[in-house]
Amino acid sequence: MGEHQVSLCEDFVHRYSEPTGPHYAHADIEELLTSYNLSLQKLHLPTVDLPASVLERVNFDVVEEQAKANSYTMQLNSEQRNVVEILLSAVYNNAADTPKCYFLDGPAGTGKTFVYSTLLHTIHGRGDDVIPVASTGIAATLLIRGRTAHSVFRIPIDLNATSTCNLKPNTKEADM
């Protein structure tokens, strides 16, 4: 990144930390290039070892995350609280008959992002990690460490009848 590193990394350093911010910026640039069928390697630039979706697990302060989870939970209305309880049950209940796929929908301003933030703080407060995934980059920026589905699941940008995801089993990416 050279002479422009500070400018390219400042948002990531602010969001993450001084040591990890540049790694996230580098991975984000790689992700943007893939949408144009390019890569850092194709442009003869240094490559990222891991995609941004699995770049260094952030070591959340569990006590701080628990406090945030408690604070957020206290602010939920009854419908939001019910949704959070259902989703946490789905995350932590390994029974085969527990539904695992949910779709949260609602008009702007109804608290969807707040529900997601409550879930994420609760999960981090339990010492667990999660990769929040959204369909667009804008939606992903609203989530704590949010990533796009294309970057996490290696969904090709140009889809056709034979397109497949490039996420390989038994890799660090798949393990996350």
Set out the fold topology:
Elements lengths: L4 H11 L5 H14 L27 H14 L2 H15 L19 H14 L7 E2 L2 H5 L5 E2 H5 L18 H4 L1
Parallel strand pairs: 1-2
Helix pairs in contact: 1-2, 3-5, 4-5
GO molecular function: 5'-3' DNA helicase activity; ATP binding; ATP hydrolysis activity
Pfam family, one: PIF1
Catalytic activity: ATP + H2O = ADP + phosphate + H(+)
Quickly list its features:
176 residues, mainly alpha, 2 domains, 8 helices, helicase, DNA recombination
Structural summary, described in words:
The relative contact order is 0.11. The longest helix has 15 residues, at 78-92. This protein folds into two domains: 2-54, no CATH class; 62-153, no CATH class. α1 packs across α2 (21-34) and α3 (62-75) runs antiparallel to α5. The protein is an all-alpha fold and 176 residues long. Mean pLDDT is 81; it is low at 51-56. It is 47% helix and 2% strand. A two-stranded parallel sheet has the order 1-2.
Average pLDDT rating? 81
Return Rg in Å: 18 Å
Look at the helices and sheets and give the structural class.
mainly alpha
Strand content: under 5%
Order of helices and strands: HHHHHEHEHH
The description of the largest β-sheet is: 2 strands, parallel
Query: Tally the helices: what do you get?
Result: 8
Dominant shape: globular
Helix content: 40-55%
Compute the number of structural domains.
Answer: 2
Could you state the oligomeric state of the chains shown? single chain
Distance between the termini: 28 Å
The count of β-strands is: 2
Low-confidence parts: 51-56
Strands side by side in the biggest sheet: 1-2
